[in-house]
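Example 3.2
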Amino acid sequence: MTIKAIMFCKFNMYATSKILEKLRELPEIKKLMSLTGDYDAIAEIEVENSDELYDIFTKKIDLIDGIIDTNTHVVMKSWEK
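Structure, written as tokens:
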């Protein structure tokens, strides 16, 4: 069963382009958007199970220099128009 999560990110000043490029390289991130407001970006993550979700953070996202905060939410159900 596929798990989807939405991750809000805050970046260090002047690191936005570099961080966005590194996030774009991750195959688990299906959609990435740069934002105005409290967060610098939002990413839609798709993995097969909770172990993969854990791994993408501990082995990939957490290692990207310049990300100062993330706020992640697992999608329970979604609707598309």
